[in-house]
Amino acid sequence: MMGRATKVISGTAISAKIRQQIKDNIDSVVALTQTTERPALGMIMVGDRQDSRLYVEAKGRACAEVGIRAENRFFAQSTTQAEILRQVHAFNADPTIDGILIQMPLPATIDEKAVVDAVLPTKDVDGLHPYNVGELAMRRRTPYFTACTPEGIVEMLDQEAVPIAGRVAVVLGRSDLVGNPVGMLLRKRHATVISCHSQTTQIENLVRQADIVVSACGVPQFVRGEWLKPGCVVIDVGINFVGNDMVGDVCFNEALGIASAITPVPGGVGPMTIAMLMRNVCKSFHRRVTTGDVTAE
Predict the structure, then answer these.
(1) Best exposed site among 40, 108, 171, 209 by fewest CB in 10 Å?
(2) Residue 292 pLDDT > 80, yes or no?
(3) What is the DSSP letter of 21?
(4) Considering its fold, how many domains does the chain have in total?
(5) Same domain, yes or no: 169 and 216
(6) How many helices (H) and strands (E) does the chain have?
(7) Same domain (yes/no): 184, 252
């Protein structure tokens, strides 16, 4: 271990500040437009997975905290795809619903792609619709929404005044939820992005080049301290369990003294994801009450 002081970036603290800003923004929009409306998030969950229910409940609490109305729809495991699509279309058609969230995973009997594709891009506050992903991928285009975890990662870097333009960013993982979109976001911010995945060889040599490391590979304590470039910033997206202990993808203790900053697990990226979801709903609400644009294809 080197003698460098490593800052532990608190996603909990940053997200609390952002949630307060969101609450203030909602109150301001309501006052300025003299509307009686409040933003609303429609959430759809299928099945009885305890972790999914906990996530939905956490999002519901966050909604209440900032002044967003949560409209939860819970469906049994045996629910058909047609029934779920009917609920999506009902939320699409409801002008008082500003955002739609499909709690993943869905049962194997339901085509996730078909459900995600059915959500209006203007209500796709999870940033998963092909329209929004395509807009993110293209230069000089702006999606209605970006996936919440990647947006939260970049927000953390900005809050900590971490330079992105011209820096080398190594992203471990290529999922649609995190790896791919965070790479696109960083590229839009003029980083040189290296994407690593299960077929990448000599990953440690690539990580050693990184000024910014984003690990979202889902392998507990995969990234070793000796892989890190001194002074780099490490964003650990991993949520893994070793016994009863929650750990990230990065060997946290090994990174201390080498990285200039690192996010902890828990208390790092997780709270930022929910904060960005709230911000996306607020953004959609603002567009609705100021322009009336709620159902544009």
Answers:
(1) 108
(2) no
(3) H
(4) 2
(5) yes
(6) 10, 11
(7) yes
Whether residue 188 contacts residue 169, with contact meaning beta carbons closer than 8 Å, is answered with: no
Active site members: 59, 103, 126
> Domain check: are 174 and 265 in the same one?
yes
pLDDT tens track for 99-136: 999 999 999 999 999 999 999 999 999 999 999 999 99
| CATH number of the domain within which 174 lies | 3.40.50.720
Name residue, tokens 């893994």: 240
pLDDT tens profile 230-246: 999 999 999 999 999 99
CB atoms within 10 A of CB 281: 31
Please report whether residue 278 resides in a domain: no
The angle formed by the CA atoms of residues 149, 118 and 218, to the nearest 5 degrees, is: 30
Residue with tokens 């996306």: 280
Res 2: pLDDT: 54
- Rounded CA separation 238/247 (Å): 7
Give ∠ CA 34-16-231 in degrees, rounded to 5.
Answer: 135
Token duo for residue 56: 């939905």
Q: How far apart are CA 220 and CA 217, in angstroms?
A: 9
Q: Give dist(CA 100, CA 105) in Å, integer.
A: 15
Q: What residues contact 30, with CB distance under 8 A and at least 6 apart? A: 37, 38
**What pLDDT score does 296 carry?**
46
Question: Could you give the C-alpha distances from 63 to 32, 157, 214, 270, in angstroms and in order?
Answer: 21, 24, 28, 16
